[in-house]
Amino acid sequence: MVENQSQLEVAVETREYFKQCLTQRGLKSTQQRAIILETFLGVKEHLSTEELYLQIREDHPKIGYATVYRTLKLFAECGIAEERNFGDGQTRYEPAHAEDHHDHLICTTCGSIVEFEDSEIERLQGVIADHHGFKMESHRLDLYGICSTCQKKKKT
Amino acid sequence: MVENQSQLEVAVETREYFKQCLTQRGLKSTQQRAIILETFLGVKEHLSTEELYLQIREDHPKIGYATVYRTLKLFAECGIAEERNFGDGQTRYEPAHAEDHHDHLICTTCGSIVEFEDSEIERLQGVIADHHGFKMESHRLDLYGICSTCQKKKKT
DNA sequence: ATCTGTGCAAACCTTTTGCACGTCA
DNA sequence: TGACGTGCAAAAGGTTTGCACAGAT
Fold it and tell me: What CATH number is given for B103-155 in this structure?
């Protein structure tokens, strides 16, 4: 309940923020962009562009593939979405909530993705970047392995 | 000097190991595979498949694109190389020295890649995987930012 | 009215595959 | 000799782009 509430707030905020971004750049708010943003925010999994496109097409069959691609790129430029790439040859996007960064555990058997975060690792990353004279902007940490479900299945 | 020596040893070892892998799988040692392995081991940067292909072609113009792709895949299967992907749409391969794992700092301005390793982060990753019931197989950690050189250039 | 956005299809780019010929065991 | 490997070109898969029309400001 509390979670739904806060998710809703995030969505409202993001919509607002997106409009600002568009205006600032002299771009236009369109129905398609709104629909794509809505679907994107409403989906929890780490969908690939194609999967998101299929999802959108269920309710809005007229929206084209290219528009989804272009719009997701736009989200990324605005800082609303983050591009990800788990090595299966498809780009995935996920909502980027700047402060609340998270990393991923990816099951190499079933492909399921679990999020986690660890402040100590984050801190150490900053230390390393400093050490190399880098001004860190972002990072990604992916752990690949076999999830507990798949481990159990294997035993059988 | 010592470093060259040990690099040479690694190369010899790897060549040997690769032959074993091939035999075990009923595959053949060919001139092309030897050449590609040699070039691959001799190059320090994180080359993309195309860059490696171009490099190889300088001395061996007859080796085809597809062979390089196929061979790098084979290296990955044998555990000699690791596939990497820094989000520029090209797959990169790098020598995989199983124990001596390293991660990457990537400059978002000039694209240069610096390797590092941190045992404390490695340890914490293991803790997290355990915590989620994952049997960890591998991981990747990429830090994106601006390298010191590019920071200096920007100020000018 | 103007300038941006969209949908479609074609183009692009990286990677994979089919096939006839070459090569290793 | 016979299987596997190679080179070429074509296919495939994901993403981008050109263009004419539609829509937002």
Answer: 3.30.1490.190
- The reply to whether the predicted model has a pTM over 0.90 is no
In angstroms, rounded to a whole number, what is the distance separating the alpha carbons of residues B116 and A101? 22
DSSP category for residue A80: S
Total residue length of chain A: 156
Per-residue pLDDT of chain A (156 residues; tens, 9 = 90+): 445 555 566 677 788 889 989 998 999 999 999 999 999 998 877 889 999 999 999 999 999 999 999 999 999 998 899 888 887 888 999 887 655 567 888 887 877 788 888 889 999 999 999 999 999 988 889 898 898 988 987 767
Domain boundaries, chain A: 2-95, 103-155
Q: Among partner residues B129, B133, B143, which is closest to A134 by beta-carbon distance?
A: B143
- What residues of B are in contact with residue A85 (Cβ under 8 Å)? 85, 87
Q: What is the DSSP string of B22-69?
A: HHHTT----HHHHHHHHHHHH--S--BHHHHHHHHHHH-TT--HHHHH
State whether residue B112 sits within 8 Å of chain A by CB.
no
* Domain B2-95: assigned CATH number: 1.10.10.10
Nearest CA in chain B to A148: B133
Closest residue to D23 (CA, C1′)? A30
Task: Please judge whether A140 and B136 are an interchain contact, meaning their C-beta atoms are less than 8 angstroms apart.
Answer: no
Does the beta carbon of B76 lie under 8 angstroms from any beta carbon of chain A?
A: no
Give the Cβ contact number of residue A141 at 10 Å: 24
Name the 3-class secondary structure at A49.
Answer: helix
